[in-house]
Amino acid sequence: xxxxxxxxAYVLAxxxxxxxxKGLTKPRTAVRGNQLAAAGMLIxxxxxxxxxxxVSYEWLVAGVIxxxxxxxxxxxRIQMTAxxxxxxxxxxxxxxxxxxxxxxxxxxxxxxxxxxxxLSDLLTxxxxxxxxxxxxxxxxxxxxxxxxxxxxxxxxxLVAFGKLQELISGQPVGFPGMKFVNALLLLGxxxxxxxxxxxxxxxxxxxxxxxxxxxxxxxxVLPIGGADMPVVIALLNSYSGLAAAxxxxxxxxxxxxxxxxxxxxxxxxxxxxxCRAMNRSLTNVLFGVMAEGADQVDADEVYGGRVKSAGPExxxxxxxxxxxxxxVPGFGLAMAQAQHAVRDLASELEARGxxxxxxxxxxxxxxxxxxxxxxxxxxxxxxxLKEMDAINPTFExxxxxxxxxxxxxxxxxxxxxxxxxxxxxxxxxxxxxxxxVVVKRSLSPGFAGLPNPLFAMDHTLMMFGDGKQAILDLTTxxxxx
Length: 481
What we know:
Helices cover 59% and strands 6% of the residues. The chain is α/β, with parallel strands linked by helices. Strand 4, helix 19 and strand 5 form a beta-alpha-beta unit.
């Protein structure tokens, strides 16, 4: 295939990537956006294989077969409730792939006899040939940055996966001076890359950079608690894109540079959105101090016997006369897999002439868009999903707000208690509804470890129990009533 045609194809692929990301900004167009981006990646992969001097397809075919099997199994077996863990793992895979490719390219460049696999021979005709017309310094810097970002993404994503899967503690884990250690690790890795520019053949320095970056990824994510996982996942997604872009410079592949840059930029934008939604700064995220806060609050002082519980029949009586109901989903809905039960309850209310909407907080759940994904699976109409800024002014006109497992994102302490660790975090103003029904297993705190004064307010009723079963019982009581 001629160079001109391949560049045209790469431009087409890049355009499809851009259109795909644009489509992913709205639930209604997300599926089409995903398809467009996938088509762009298919074009890029096919053109690359046709345009390069491929010596052997055996490894490529084996990778395609293995990847197809693993991807199919994940698609079939992974539950929607485990989607945050899967996203974290996929981010790690992206970082690991960039790390592997950059490592092999560097070894082929400075010490061909040590390369474990001649990826360059398979795809680009050899690193030495690729570097013949390129600046060696640029190649070494790009390889070093690819390795640095890729290793941080890989190990950081694995730690995030472990926290989300509860293989390790979801609470912040750290030690005094951790920020200082992280800064030293980063500076050490950058210094190693600088030394490689001066002396490219220092393979031991290269492996030291890999080790420092891998340790940095672990220590960056360990001190971050479960409540902050949406920010972490968005940031790691950005890292994986930046690593891919750096690998594109190493391999001289323009479409990889474009795709990686798009993912990196969109991930950073999403990270900033998540930070704003949690009243965090990007510096806090980068240096792992997100979990720091003020003194803890005594739950007995907040609740003090003021919590009122109610059964499905009592809540059904409230809903019978309600003209407007807002459902506030949280991680409890995901854990109970209650999205379909909630959709059935909404259908019953709508059949009675009640208006039903869903209040979506940007960081509800454990990944960006977690609630949107779950409710879309239950075929909740897109127009009923309302973002925080749109729904908050309407709570005062809401007859009943039904909160399902959303704790921190509805906690009035964020507005009223200046000593609270979550003070300043934008929340859903659920407490302004005429009646609030909270579906929760117990009064246990959310990820922030704080009691929620909403549960003890005069107009709040608690329905204790499993989220799915409670909603099913409520729907039954409403039908019988």
